[in-house]
From TrEMBL:
Protein name: Phytocyanin domain-containing protein
Topological category with respect to the lipid bilayer: Single-pass type I membrane protein
UniProt GO MF annotations: electron transfer activity; metal ion binding
A GO BP entry: response to symbiotic fungus
A Pfam entry, by short name: Cu_bind_like
PROSITE patterns associated with the record: PHYTOCYANIN
CDD domains: Phytocyanin
Predominant location: membrane
Species per Swiss-Prot/TrEMBL record: Kalanchoe fedtschenkoi (Lavender scallops)
Cellular localization per UniProt: Membrane
Stretches assigned to the Phytocyanin domain: 23-122
GO cellular component: plasma membrane
Signal peptide: 1-22
Keywords, in A-Z order: Copper, Disulfide bond, Electron transport, Glycoprotein, Membrane, Metal-binding, Signal, Transmembrane, Transmembrane helix, Transport
Length: 154
């Protein structure tokens, strides 16, 4: 049946697409990067993978973005250099592990809680020019076999 095949293909796509496409996260969604916003609540329930990107949106000069270590995150210690300040800073999550970001303007980190901590997870290798496409294994292979069989039989 055509609708059955469609469902199986849809299920396969749902399985395979997230492994291939990177996700772009707009930090704070419509609120952007600002004071008085709960970035830990924003991050809760989201899965960050290597290759995904964070976008920090804010008015130029009002805020900035500093990547810091855990100690500096807790203490709101602002680095002397290396701040991103374009107003639309895009950070690619290149390695797995915990990442910490704070605003370096005024007391935005200390008082305004303008700070974000996330954990980046290892992603399945994405297909690139020199790498093989991800192998289709397990029940995805079984589903593919089922689809092929249906086409051959019907
Ligand atoms: C964290 O960063 C601060 C400021 O950049 C630095 O002085 C400190 O040594 C770092 N701590 C660790 C544990 O790397
Ligand atoms: Cu700020």
């Amino acid at each position: 049946m055509a609708s059955g095949t469609g469902l199986i293909l849809l299920a396969m796509a749902a399985l395979l697409v997230p492994a291939i496409l990177a996700t772009e996260f707009i930090v704070g969604d419509g609120s952007g990067w600002t004071i008085g916003y709960d970035y830990q609540a924003w991050a809760t329930g989201k899965n960050f993978y290597v290759g995904d990107t964070l976008v920090f949106n804010y008015a130029v000069g009002v805020h900035n973005v500093n990547k810091v270590n855990q100690t500096a995150f807790q203490d709101c210690t602002i680095p002397l250099s290396g701040a991103l300040e374009s107003g639309k800073d895009v950070i690619t999550l290149a390695t797995p592990g915990k990442k910490w970001y704070i605003c370096g303007k005024g007391k935005h980190c200390e008082v305004g809680k303008q700070k974000l901590a996330i954990t980046v997870m290892d992603a399945a290798p994405a297909p690139g020019p020199s790498s093989a496409p991800p192998a289709i294994t397990g029940w995805a292979a079984a589903a593919l076999a089922a689809v092929l069989l249906k086409h051959l039989v019907v």
